[in-house]
Write a structure and sequence with these properties.
This protein has 1 helix and 9 strands; from the N terminus they run H-E-E-E-E-E-E-E-E-E. By secondary structure, it is an alpha+beta fold. It has an 8-stranded antiparallel beta barrel. Strand 7 and strand 8 form a beta hairpin. The longest helix has 28 residues. The N and C termini lie far apart (about 50 Å).
Length: about 140
């Protein structure tokens, strides 16, 4: 009886350790830089986001580059994109901190003032991040190390 109980406990401990190791690898897979290329009717866009792990186990999300270029030259446009093919960098964006949810591979950023939650989804096997934009998601591809 003691031997079978010990064997059962050993198997349970091995299963528990293998699951927790897999979880840590999953959390580490989201860390890195991601890029996106998109366009609308008037402009082309190239954006880069960075995900970093903080000392307290959370994750910082920062837009580190935000480039755009006009499709057609138009000196009367109200923004800086007036010349076609001229790329303009709007600079680094704000940094937001979120918690990783292993169950559905999402990063959840809670606004401290309103309590609203922004959810960033990941496909870690494909190296994709789905960042919420308006009523949709912008797809970012992980940059290989």
């Amino acid at each position: 009886m003691r031997t079978s109980c010990f064997s059962l406990m050993a198997m349970l401990l091995i299963a528990l350790c293998s699951c927790s190791g897999k979880g840590k690898r999953l959390e580490e897979k989201i860390i890195g830089r991601y890029f996106s290329v998109s366009e609308n009717e008037y402009d082309h866009f190239k954006d880069t986001m960075e995900i970093r792990r903080t000392d307290d186990g959370k994750y910082d999300v920062t837009q580190i580059a935000n480039w755009s270029s006009a499709k057609k030259s138009d000196p009367t446009r109200p923004n800086r994109n007036k010349v076609a093919g001229e790329w303009i960098n709007y600079g680094k964006g704000d940094t937001f901190t979120g918690s990783f949810q292993m169950s559905d591979t999402t990063l959840r950023i809670t606004d401290p003032m309103s309590g609203s939650v922004e959810i960033i989804r990941f496909d870690v096997d494909e190296g994709l991040m789905y960042y919420p934009v308006r009523n949709s998601f912008e797809t970012y591809t992980k940059i290989k190390d």
